[in-house]
Amino acid sequence: MKKLLSTKYSAGAFSVAMLVLRLSAGILIMKHGYDKLIHFESMHNSFLNFMGIGSTFSLALVIFAEFFCGLFIVIGLFTRLAAIPLIISFSVALFKAHNGDIFGKGEPATLFLTCFIVLLLVGPGRASIDGMTGK
Question: What is the C-alpha separation between 58 and 50, in angstroms, rounded?
Fold first, then answer.
């Protein structure tokens, strides 16, 4: 019981926790991005036109962030760099598309945004390509 309530942790426990966070957030966001990728034709005209860059280009940027950056997060390569487009994407989703409704329809965006901010701040852990190469 003492160990369960302790605030101390080992480097191994930290690396396992970051692996679980990376895999769960990365795989879930890749599935989300893959759905957009295969339905690109039906979505590109009705997607959010962010800052006037066009709905097609906005959708392409979101697909890049969700699918390809999600893949980098899963394998743990350039993890902090890959988290940046995802943070931008989910900030736009939360504050522009869902009007900052963190407890309503914007809740999934809030959860993903939180995961990717943690990955940006803390890094991927030792169980990653970044961790193995010492980056």
Answer: 6
Q: Which residue has the tokens 């902090």?
A: 80
The domain locations on the chain are 15-125
CB distance 15 to 126 below 8 Å: yes
Burial of 32 (0-12, 13-18, 19+ CB in 10 A): middle
pLDDT band at 29 (very low <50, low <70, confident <90, very high): very high
How many Å apart are CA 104 and CA 75, to the nearest integer? 31
Taking the model in full, what pTM does it have? 0.86
CA-based R_g, the chain, Å: 17
